């Protein structure tokens, strides 16, 4: 059995094809980038429209399959940017109608978690999902992926990229700031804002931007990253303590950060927990995770009427019933 999944929540238009064991036969993508700004939703959607066909052809060629071999089609129904989501949804509906496949809209964040659990030894982790747009601390409790804490304003990846843009580091700036983290010598005090179990990054970013030109640039990168990740670690540690889980799983685009890994390693060592990091190709937005989510929901018997395949920009992680366990 083969599942084809379409990801188009933000920058990336991706198509993945997986089999029943989550062997990834194809994981093709095209990513929108803008030299000045993070993302312009309509321009990103135009990009996805222009590249969609090519990405589909690449995915089928990679998998050595044709559309007639596909058994189920899934797409990221949300959360994400409306114009971008719609390109994926329309593509999926068209393919489903033409080739008579079942169609399933799946939750993008839940797909990140499930591919992470499949591609690492983690079984019941607290998930640290950090990307440009999202920052959530998630854990499975009573049949749903509960969001124990999350950003109330911007994703931590966006904080790093916005700061990097002010420094002229280009996009994405996160990897450069990550290198600088290990070169920094002095921690500059910056606003640290954990509200209950939630995170607020705007004050931290504003204050760091104000210090550009007045403080050492390397120390400033180190301090911004250290403060932002310390906030994430505090909430993750409290979620671990509350749930008594023994694993942390890191996913999303920021999972590639060595600084975040080093901070979470210390946290896990102190709490007797294990740290797992999703391989980069499956941690970034990608079609394979959407295909895998479609596969497990289809196998568990979910059917979605065509009329309910509208996109949902605010589709929350904790709305989804985890019925496939
Ligand atoms: Fe994502």
Determine the mean pLDDT.
Answer: 96
Question: Could you list the spans in which at least 5 consecutive residues all have pLDDT below 50?
Answer: none
What small molecules are bound in this structure? fe (ii) ion
What is the rounded distance between the termini? 19 Å
The strands making up the biggest β-sheet line up spatially as 3-2-1-4-5
Strand content: 15-25%
Subcellular location: Cytoplasm
Enzyme class: transferase
Domain Gcp-like: 26-292
Main location: cytoplasm
Task: Describe the structure in your own words.
The chain is an alpha/beta fold and about 325 residues long. It folds into two domains: about 1-110 and about 285-320, ATPase, nucleotide binding domain (Nucleotidyltransferase, domain 5), CATH 3.30.420; about 120-280, ATPase, nucleotide binding domain (Nucleotidyltransferase, domain 5, 2-Layer Sandwich), CATH 3.30.420. The chain has helices at about 40-65, 80-100, 110-120, 155-165, 175-180, 200-210, 215-245, 260-270, 280-285, 285-300; strands spanning about 1-5, 10-20, 25-30, 70-80, 105, 125-130, 135-140, 145-150, 195, 200, 245-250, 275. The strands form three sheets. It has a five-stranded mixed beta sheet with strand order 3-2-1-4-5, sandwiched between helices. A five-stranded mixed beta sheet has the order 8-7-6-11-12, with helices on both faces. Strand 2 and strand 3 (about 25-30) form a beta hairpin. Helix 1 runs parallel beside helix 2 (about 80-100), helix 3 (about 110-120) packs across helix 10 (about 285-300) and helix 5 (about 175-180) packs across helix 7. It binds fe (ii) ion. Fe (ii) ion (FE2) binds near residues 108, 112 and 131. InterPro entries: ATPase_NBD, Gcp-like_dom, KAE1/TsaD, Kae1_archaea_euk. It is found in: Cytoplasm. Its main location: cytoplasm. Keywords: Acyltransferase, Cytoplasm, Iron, Metal-binding, Transferase, tRNA processing.
